Amino acid sequence: MAPKVMLLGDSGVGKTCILMRFREGRFLAGNFISTVGVDFRTKVVSIDETKVKLQIWDTAGQERFRSVTHAYYRDAHALLLLYDVTNKTSFDNIRAWLGEIKEYAQDDVVIMLLGNKADCGSERAVRREEGERLAREYNVAFMETSAKSGQNVELAFMAVARELKYRQSGQRDTNKFSVQDYVREKQNGKSSQPFTQQQQCPQCNTN
Ligand code: GTP
């Protein structure tokens, strides 16, 4: 069964762009076209030489589509919850998103919080530490990403893909949220895995 990963978060935080960056390795600059309802794409990734086909669901952030997207939560194995580091409201709304996730998603769904648009140094409205603190409070993994530069995009998807593969094969205790350890390890550069896309953001000096 192909693991299902859902992208969630306010309209305009960059869900479609993150998916595009991961799937096609490019950034869609220019006109912002809001997603209508739900859209999905697949991508095959290799985890420890095993191929895993991810089903990635891109949802509309706009409030008017909320009842449509709720229907898809139940089947999701992992959720990438995005806010925009230049938009404080999108960060403040994360608590409400986590509330919806609690209500509609499976209890053991893998959640990762992503502070996107980390390339926008001068326009930053949410500090990295604030994201880290919120993630710690809810015991979810966290990283800052940029669909524009590619920072951490592959790492985010690969971390959840790895966790889901382990869970499916029964290799991992599902009560233990290991994505956090994995991300920490990767970000500290302790592993020899080749796929990290961490780049220093030249403006805000974070990674
Ligand atoms: P909805 O479909 O309405 O839910 O929005 P979305 O979350 O899918 O946002 P989308 O990916 O369409 O991006 C919205 C705008 O943000 C676009 O103009 C993108 O070019 C821009 N954007 C997305 N990601 C980044 C990023 O990492 N950096 C910068 N600078 N801009 C970004």
Automatic annotation (TrEMBL):
Its cofactor is Mg(2+). GO terms for biological process: protein transport. Pfam families: Ras (PF00071). The keyword Nucleus does not apply. SUPFAM superfamilies: P-loop containing nucleoside triphosphate hydrolases (SSF52540). InterPro entries: P-loop_NTPase, Small_GTP-bd, Small_GTPase. GO terms for molecular function: G protein activity; GTP binding; metal ion binding. Keywords: GTP-binding, Hydrolase, Lipoprotein, Magnesium, Metal-binding, Nucleotide-binding, Prenylation, Protein transport, Transport. Residues 191-207 have a biased composition (Low complexity). The keyword Metal-binding applies. Residues 186-207 are annotated as: Disordered. It comes from the Eukaryota. Gene3D superfamilies: P-loop containing nucleotide triphosphate hydrolases. It catalyses: GTP + H2O = GDP + phosphate + H(+). Its EC number is 3.6.5.2. Belongs to the small GTPase superfamily. Rab family. PANTHER family: PTHR47978. This is small monomeric GTPase.
